[in-house]
What we know:
Helices cover 83% and strands 0% of the residues. The protein is mainly alpha-helical. Helix 1 packs antiparallel against helix 6, helix 3 packs antiparallel against helix 4 (111-132) and helix 4 packs antiparallel against helix 6 (157-172).
Amino acid sequence: MTDINLFQLLFYLLPAVIVGVISFYFFKMHTSNEEKRRRYLLRLDNQKIGLPIKLQAFERMALFLERISMGKLLLRVKPKSNDLEVYVDLLVQTVDQEFDHNLAQQIYLTSECWNVIKTSKNATIGIIRKTAKKEDVTTADELRQNILSALMDQVPPTEAALGYIKKEVRNIL
């Protein structure tokens, strides 16, 4: 082949190569956009299904916190006898049972939110045990009175956790 024929062949092939490269670029861009669109639609469908479940988990944890709040806990769980240790064990057991009943909800909550809830539960148990160790508390009724009077002076740990849950729900919605 001569140089002129080779030059003419390259001259004729150049538009085909350019069209091929542009076609490849547009095809790749199109498939990428389609993949992103499918992922978006899948995520949207998952949100339609997952959001109600997530909100239900927040509702259950809010109910849990309400049930273990000191005032409601002491009204709901009455002492069976006047023995202090038996009543403390009953209160702690009630809080633990409520918590165990809602353990599966942690799947739908952020780990930070779950840690706040666990901390609130542990702080509630801590308040019960700390109040029971006071020297002036010798009966179950005195324990109830001391805890209820202490609630007047301080914010219960369940209130802080409930506030955190409300903030999380506002962020989701």
